[in-house]
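Researcher: Next entry in the queue.
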Amino acid sequence: MTSLVIVGRIRRAHGIRGEVVVELMTETPDAIFAPGARLFAGTAAGDPAPDGAELHVESARPFNDTLLVSFDEVADRTVAERWRDRFLLVPESEIDPPGEDEVFVHQLVGLDVVHAGDAPIGRVIGTFEVAGRLLLEVQREGGTVLLPYEDEFVEKVDLAANRLVMILPDGLLE
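Model: Structure for this entry, 174 residues:
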């Protein structure tokens, strides 16, 4: 199977008929969560589920800043509760590639992080979505640090060189 990309996360069950609240992690939710669309179940860590479970969208509708989604395989609230906090994935080949100045979140893991002046900071070992912001977990010599992945701090992402160049305010790493 090709590389899988995270497109959403099931946050919780909604109602008694198996609907789930999905936090969106895609800019094309209408296509990804269209009736009949196939998604793959991921773990709570964002990895593909060992069972390779597929889910098929029955219906989706807006709900605040999320979607309420019904899957053919999720018949009731009891089953829906088992999916809480699991990621939803699609094959990378089935979605549009990122734009020129964009990357998939999973591509950030493993990048070497450096200051704009080439001073090493560490290596990205994970990502977290917190309050609508993406944080990078960066392994350093003395442990790990969380850094905000935002336009004001990111100078350049160079996937070919495996580098993420950041401009960080003084004191952020202390």
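Model: Residues 105-166 form a domain with the SH3 type barrels. fold (CATH 2.30.30.240).
Researcher: Noted, moving on.
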